[in-house]
Predict the structure of Polygalacturonase.
Amino acid sequence: MCSTNTQHVVLVSIGSLGKNRTTDRVENVRVDTCLLTNTTNGVRIKSWQGGMGSARDLRFESIVMKNVSNPIIIDQYYCDQPTPCANQTEAVEVRKVEFVDVRGTSATARAIKIACSDTAPCTELELRNVNLTVVGGGAATASCYRASGKAAGVVAPASCLAKGDP
């Protein structure tokens, strides 16, 4: 079991992928039975614009979040500079990612953020039995851009994934 109770830590992060136009591949990873408390990010896949390669066949299962600022993130536009990074057309492919039995509380209203590339949209994503609420009560939100897949079981906040190709 993985567990953390600290600020500014990303316990479960895949990336940075594709920094400086490199090719990176991450495949067949399963993260299971984790408790994340008071972290900046929860489960995350991050890649740089202009990168190449893939992140696929990934499964995050039985994850409990307590007061996590960004519980679920896929970000194909990662940039760590104070000024915006240059817009690139290449992107690391993100495909076949499952979030299963993820529950708990978000420190922010947006609990799910999936931001994918116009040229390499995220496909075959699945949200299954995801239940995230805002600390102190209230409904959380989800935002998706160029992301497709399916939702199964109870999913809260409501899935923002497009069905079929984005």
Q: What stands out?
A: The chain has a mean pLDDT of 91. The chain is about 0% helix and 65% strand.
